[in-house]
């Protein structure tokens, strides 16, 4: 802006002329300018013309701060903090007796939803707008005049001239600057620069200082320069587009634009025509193209370089109110009739024209009040009421109302028009069951509710994710995966991999020492899915390891804030296809226990043996006659290649496309090692062998590619595609292209034969009438290859599909990057899983389906279906995150009007392989060739022993080293005593106390409902920070045996010290005074104890195990929050129970996991004592009566008299 010549574009007065303008602020989303007057009213103007948009009263006194937000405008006065919509609707009003005399405000961070407030008492308070609650308050030491934040530091300018810099996360004072002799009148922060201006006193009078002071606020604060400004600066603002350009204004109307890093050498000065009024407020738009000023005369001035200047670079369109045209006046005299009055056109029938003999629907029928109620009725004025006879003191809220609901809702019988009612029911049923989606060139289809994405919209005051009823969406015995975490798009692929028995057996028996090993984490996830039958799981640890692998971020596989979100692959279909390839390649690298994860192992891996296909590439140089270059490359999936150009009426079959994709010939320009230059090459690719599981990448990137997936007649080909019957790009004609309409294009079985002599591949579709291919029958094709072996010939059956589903159908954005949608998986359940889980039957119809729909559309088929290659019975299940429902084979190949697009296909050999279980688990993946043998059926044979050996657990227990203090003398930890594996070996049913602490890695993501209320779109991402295990029996009962602090591999957003007891630096091995280990090692210790059958006692173990990402059988969990809980009543905190039952005061200043685990063990001992004495129920009622009496607060004097003692556990 310094190089552009500025001028005044417009000026206008406020609603009431003469009211001084206290604050100005540009809107962050719309092209609006907000101003606030000294009387508390807010005005908005459309920029840059300054047309009036809205005006409303916000405060009873002068406004001291304006902050723009996405929801509206936040204004602050000396007593109130209020949020209004842009039209003036009140959204929030906050007032607190402890937060009065407000002088300034600013956002803690842009978009964080927390406001910093400076008020009387020399304090700063942090107001959380989502809860309307003061999150924290800290003293500054001086009265605050101005305050600004840059997202990392908060600068507070005081009336004494000092500037205090505080870290907004800890509110600790970082620096104190003696900046001015008098009050700091304005300051601003940007990056590492701070500019300020203030007041001074000369000859007994107060003046504005004639300099602008610039400071460098890096590690050591130092002044950079003093920029002269003779009129005296009153307001300072950094220019958003540049890092060092500052706008300075004075009360006389003089403005200065200067580069503070250049010492003020480059500057521009202007004068605002205020007509002797004082210039009080100024602001710069986010685009940097507009300046706004407000004066004491009530005038608003907008400056810029041109009339086309923008407020924001990407503003939303400004919503203007509808203008209601006034009705024309009708003048009549007393002698004229009212029928002569002109009425506006309307479809409503006047009441005077209604046939009084016909019934008129006016709502619900009248209620019936019984005679016994009328006899008991008490009348007061004109209101009669009857006391509810079912109400009892102490009963749950709403129980009395529900008991008399039948009496209150008793109504007279309505006279029903049978004919009209039947027509209405018919129209209603059509509307509900046929949600039509009409696309371009497609038929009429609908997307079943089982495919819809279910989002958990919790209220902002109910942040517990456990309150959501997952069982409603899953009536099967399989476990689902939750979709409220980042990178949850992987859920569909993880479900597919779980139902591959050979892969599951291999990865669940793999344990290595790498911190971020995807093979280990995948095995842990599959183990959780195996245990949590009918429940839900979270693959947190797997996705955490994925975020730490650089290759995953480079491929755009990682979702999340900031740099990950900017670099991720926008197309969800491409992202899941890339993730499938990356995961199998990473398992191949980590195979056979390789020490270096970057170097591929020379031994075969499980991914190589199941999915690997070795392709041989012949590169022939066109410009020379030297020998061909032959290379071999390993690939884990086949990318389906579609004909170039537009499709025509003759479409190739799936087998033809797969055949050309496996054996492909193309021309390219590449490096020739013989010519030592980039030359034109002809590359021919040929598979040397066939995998056990063939993965086909559908690669649907154009609408023309999607055309091939529709059955005949469902998709109209383009007229310009070509003449009917002509081959596409040299493809041979096929009889399938001219046959009658087909039921589905995707076959359920294919047969593939390799000819190593001719370097050709033959693919035919099994179970079809089209058994000819170029004059050969299916039998002749198979017998034509004399050297046909298992590696060169196989019959594959479709066993899984990953599909991209679009809930909101939009043809224009169907295959574009901004079309997000979600992923689902169709899996054909193997017989081993069906036998282990006892079938796939539903206890009730699936979610959102009527009984007729469930029986017809999503139930297992028991009759033959007319599908090519499909079996006579269906074992297919649809996995939609945690929504799981049986489906049919015909539903797998149905695209529902292009709302379901296939991404990955999994074809398995009819002879299913398995991993040799004789391989020791400690060796990880097999060290030699994989032995293929049949998988035994039954859950006992399918489940494997713990992969963690006793030697591994002993090494993990003893490897914790003592930290080094300043004297370099090792000092043992005093908080825990590890297991002595010779005398106290973990045994089944051993009693252990457990507690875990967490830190916040990212804030919660919130959204707004249609009614304006907020809901938690994605809860705050928590990370395990500390886990403690305490012995509950034996000689050392009450002594901690494991106390691990988890090393932080990601930046910590909030340590939650008040609730976790973890302080900054505790999770860093270089600075921590505690035993710091990796998350994986802590997991392996707990997993070993779980596999040994140990019982765990704790308070709120459900959340602890959820965040540790481990599934523990219910028989091994003893949760005191459930033991001391009265049905349909609130949960009791550990601190409250310890104070009442144990007369112990815990968690005074912060939490300690060892203390909490010991307290839970003592509560369990108290529980057993009360149950043995037969006093438990009475004591529980006594606890709840005490809690209600004292509002669940701990009263020390009462506790000492009412609570009973319990013998402490021996320690």
Short descriptors:
single chain; PAN2-PAN3_catalytic_subunit; 27% strand; 1211 residues; 28 helices; alpha+beta; six-stranded mixed beta sheet; nine-stranded mixed beta sheet
- Assess the beta-strand content as a share of residues: 25-35%
Total strands: the figure is: 57
The SS-based structural class is: alpha+beta
| Overall average pLDDT | 78
Anisotropy-based shape: globular
The largest sheet, given as strand count, sense and whether it forms a barrel, is: 9 strands, mixed
Radius of gyration: 37 Å
- Sequence stretches where pLDDT stays below 50 over 5 or more residues: 416-445, 460-466, 593-602, 716-742, 768-789, 842-872, 912-943, 961-971, 1203-1211
Helix fraction by DSSP (H/I, runs of at least 4) = 10-25%
Distance between the termini: 72 Å
Number of helices: 28
GO molecular function: metal ion binding; nucleic acid binding; poly(A)-specific ribonuclease activity
Keywords: Cytoplasm, Exonuclease, Hydrolase, Metal-binding, mRNA processing, Nuclease
Biased composition (Polar residues): 934-948
Cofactor: a divalent metal cation
Furnish the topology, listing elements before pairings.
Elements: E1 7-13, E2 21-26, E3 32-37, E4 41-46, E5 51-57, E6 63-68, E7 73-77, E8 81-84, E9 90-94, E10 104-107, E11 114-119, E12 123-128, E13 133-139, E14 144-149, E15 153-158, E16 162-167, E17 173-178, E18 184-190, E19 193-202, E20 205-208, E21 211-216, E22 222-228, E23 235-238, E24 245-249, E25 254-259, E26 267-271, E27 279-284, E28 290-295, E29 299-304, H1 371-376, E30 378-380, E31 383-385, H2 399-403, H3 405-408, H4 418-433, E32 437-438, E33 444-445, E34 458-459, E35 480-481, H5 491-498, H6 501-508, H7 518-531, E36 536-537, H8 540-547, H9 550-554, H10 562-567, H11 572-589, H12 606-611, E37 613-621, E38 629-635, E39 638-639, H13 654-662, E40 665-672, E41 677-687, E42 693-697, H14 703-707, E43 749-755, E44 760-765, H15 778-784, E45 793-805, E46 822-828, H16 831-837, H17 851-856, E47 876-880, E48 883-886, H18 889-892, E49 900-909, H19 939-942, H20 950-958, E50 991-1002, E51 1005-1008, E52 1014-1018, E53 1021-1031, E54 1040-1046, H21 1057-1060, E55 1076-1077, H22 1079-1091, E56 1095-1098, H23 1101-1108, E57 1117-1119, ...
Parallel strand pairs: 35-36, 39-42, 50-56, 54-55, 56-57
Antiparallel strand pairs: 1-29, 2-3, 3-4, 4-5, 6-7, 7-8, 8-9, 10-11, 11-12, 12-13, 14-15, 15-16, 16-17, 18-19, 19-20, 19-21, 21-22, 23-24, 24-25, 25-26, 27-28, 28-29, 30-31, 32-33, 34-52, 37-38, 37-41, 40-41, 42-49, 43-44, 43-45, 45-46, 45-49, 46-47, 47-48, 50-53, 51-52, 53-54
Helix pairs in contact: 6-7, 7-8, 20-22, 25-26
């Amino acid at each position: 802006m310094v190089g552009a010549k500025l001028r005044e574009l417009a000026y206008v007065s406020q609603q009431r002329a003469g009211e001084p303008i206290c604050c100005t602020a540009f809107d962050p989303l719309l092209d609006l300018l907000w101003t606030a007057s000294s009387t508390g009213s807010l005005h908005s103007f459309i920029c840059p013309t300054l047309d009036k948009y809205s005006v409303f009263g916000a405060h009873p006194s002068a406004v001291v701060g304006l902050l723009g937000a996405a929801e509206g405008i936040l204004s602050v006065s000396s007593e109130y903090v209020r949020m209004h919509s842009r039209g003036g609707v009140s959204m929030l009003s906050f007032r607190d007796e402890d937060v009065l005399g407000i002088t300034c405000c600013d956002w803690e961070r842009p978009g964080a939803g927390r406001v910093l407030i400076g008020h009387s008492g020399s304090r700063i308070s942090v107001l959380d707008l989502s809860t309307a609650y003061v999150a924290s308050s800290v003293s500054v030491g001086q009265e605050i005049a101005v305050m600004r934040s840059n997202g990392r530091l908060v600068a507070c300018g005081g009336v004494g001239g000092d500037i205090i810099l505080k870290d907004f996360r800890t509110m600790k004072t970082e620096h104190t600057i003696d900046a001015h002799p008098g009050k700091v009148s304005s300051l601003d922060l940007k990056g590492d620069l701070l500019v300020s201006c203030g007041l001074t006193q000369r000859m007994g009078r107060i003046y504005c200082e004639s300099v602008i002071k610039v400071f460098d606020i890096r590690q050591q604060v130092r002044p950079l320069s003093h920029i002269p400004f003779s009129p005296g600066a009153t307001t300072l603002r950094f220019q958003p587009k540049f890092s060092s350009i500052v706008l300075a204004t004075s009360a006389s109307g003089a403005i200065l634009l200067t580069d503070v890093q250049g010492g003020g050498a480059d500057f521009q000065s202007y004068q605002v025509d205020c007509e002797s009024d004082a210039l009080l407020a100024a602001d710069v738009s986010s685009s940097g193209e507009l300046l706004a000023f407000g004066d004491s005369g009530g005038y608003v001035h907008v400056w810029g370089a041109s009339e086309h200047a923008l407020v924001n670079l990407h503003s939303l369109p400004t919503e203007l109110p509808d203008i209601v045209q006034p009705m024309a006046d009708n003048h009549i005299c007393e002698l004229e009739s009212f029928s002569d009055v002109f009425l506006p056109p309307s479809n409503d029938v006047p009441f005077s024209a209604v046939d009084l003999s016909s019934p008129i629907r006016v709502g619900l029928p009248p209620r019936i009040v019984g005679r016994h109620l009328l006899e008991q009725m008490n009348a007061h004025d004109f209101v009669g009421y009857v006391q509810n006879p079912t109400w009892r003191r102490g009963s749950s809220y709403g129980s009395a109302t529900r008991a008399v609901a039948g009496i209150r809702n008793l109504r007279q019988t309505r006279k029903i028009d049978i004919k009209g009612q039947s027509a209405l029911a018919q129209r209603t049923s059509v509307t509900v069951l046929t949600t039509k989606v009409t696309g371009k060139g497609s038929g009429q289809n609908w997307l079943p509710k089982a495919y819809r994405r279910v989002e958990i919209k919790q209220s902002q005051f109910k942040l517990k994710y456990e309150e959501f009823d997952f069982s409603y969406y899953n009536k099967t015995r399989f476990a689902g995966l939750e979709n409220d975490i980042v990178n949850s798009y992987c859920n569909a692929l993880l479900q597919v991999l779980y139902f591959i028995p050979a892969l599951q057996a291999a990865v669940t028996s793999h344990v290595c020492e790498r911190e971020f090993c995807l093979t280990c984490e995948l095995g842990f996830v599959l183990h959780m899915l195996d245990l949590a039958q009918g429940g839900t799981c979270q693959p947190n640890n797997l996705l955490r390891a994925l975020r730490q692998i650089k290759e995953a971020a480079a491929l755009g596989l990682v979702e999340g804030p900031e740099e990950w979100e900017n670099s991720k692959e926008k197309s969800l279909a491409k992202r899941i296809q890339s993730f499938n390839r990356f995961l199998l390649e990473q398992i191949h690298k980590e195979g056979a226990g390789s020490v270096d994860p970057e170097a591929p192992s020379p031994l075969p891996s499980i991914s190589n043996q199941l999915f690997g296909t070795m392709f041989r590439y012949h590169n022939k140089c066109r410009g020379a006659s030297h020998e061909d270059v032959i290379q071999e490359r390993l690939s884990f999936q086949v990318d389906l290649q579609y004909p170039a150009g537009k499709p025509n009426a003759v479409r190739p079959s799936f087998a033809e496309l797969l055949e050309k994709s496996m054996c492909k010939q193309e021309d390219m320009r590449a490096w020739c090692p013989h010519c030592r230059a980039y030359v034109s090459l002809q590359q021919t690719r040929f598979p040397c062998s066939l995998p056990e599981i063939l993965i086909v990448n559908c690669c649907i990137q154009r609408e023309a590619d999607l055309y091939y997936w529709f059955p005949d007649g469902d998709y109209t080909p383009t007229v310009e595609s070509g003449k009917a019957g002509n081959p596409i790009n040299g493809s041979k004609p096929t009889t399938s292209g001219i046959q009658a309409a087909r039921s589905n294009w995707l076959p359920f079985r294919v047969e593939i034969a390799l000819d190593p002599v001719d370097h050709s591949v033959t693919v035919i579709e099994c179970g079809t009438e089209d058994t000819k291919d170029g004059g050969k029958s299916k039998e002749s094709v198979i017998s034509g290859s004399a050297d046909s072996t298992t590696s060169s010939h196989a019959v594959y059956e479709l066993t899984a599909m990953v599909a991209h589903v679009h809930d909101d159908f939009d043809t224009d954005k169907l295959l574009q990057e901004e079309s997000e949608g979600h992923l689902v998986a169709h899996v054909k359940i193997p017989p081993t899983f069906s036998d282990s889980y006892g079938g796939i039957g539903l206890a009730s119809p699936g979610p959102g389906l009527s009984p007729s729909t469930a029986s017809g559309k999503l139930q297992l088929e028991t009759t033959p279906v007319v599908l090519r290659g499909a079996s006579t019975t269906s074992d297919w299940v649809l996995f939609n995150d945690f929504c799981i429902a049986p489906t049919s084979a015909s539903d797998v190949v149905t695209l529902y009007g292009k709302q379901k697009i296939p991404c990955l296909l999994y074809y398995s050999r009819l002879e299913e392989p398995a991993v040799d279980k004789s391989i020791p688990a400690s060796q990880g993946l097999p060290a030699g060739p994989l032995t293929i043998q049949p998988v035994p059926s039954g859950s006992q044979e399918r489940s494997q022993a713990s992969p963690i050996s006793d030697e591994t657990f002993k090494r993990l227990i003893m490897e914790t080293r003592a930290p080094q203090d300043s004297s370099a003398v090792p000092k043992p930890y005093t908080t825990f005593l590890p297991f002595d594996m010779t005398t106290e070996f973990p045994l089944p049913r051993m009693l252990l106390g457990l507690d875990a602490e967490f830190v916040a890695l990212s804030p919660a993501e919130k959204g707004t409902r249609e009614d304006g209320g907020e809901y938690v779109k994605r809860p705050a991402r928590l990370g395990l920070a500390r886990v403690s295990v305490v012995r509950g029996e034996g000689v050392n009962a009450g002594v901690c045996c494991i106390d691990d602090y988890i090393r932080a591999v990601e930046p910590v957003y909030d340590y939650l010290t008040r609730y976790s007891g973890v302080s900054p630096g505790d999770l860093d091995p270089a600075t921590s005074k505690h035993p710091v280990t990796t998350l994986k090692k802590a997991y392996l210790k707990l997993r070993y104890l779980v596999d040994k059958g140990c019982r765990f006692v704790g308070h709120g173990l459900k959340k602890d195990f959820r965040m540790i990402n481990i599934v523990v059988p219910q028989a091994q969990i003893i949760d005191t929050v459930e033991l001391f809980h009265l049905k349909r009543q609130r949960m009791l905190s550990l601190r409250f129970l310890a104070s009442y039952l144990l007369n112990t005061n815990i968690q005074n200043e912060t939490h300690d996991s060892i203390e909490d685990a010991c307290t839970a063990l003592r509560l369990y001992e108290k529980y057993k004592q009360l149950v043995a004495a037969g006093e438990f129920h009475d004591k529980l009622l006594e606890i709840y009566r005490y809690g209600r009496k004292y509002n669940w607060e701990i009263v020390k004097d009462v506790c000492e008299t009412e609570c009973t003692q319990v013998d402490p556990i021996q320690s």
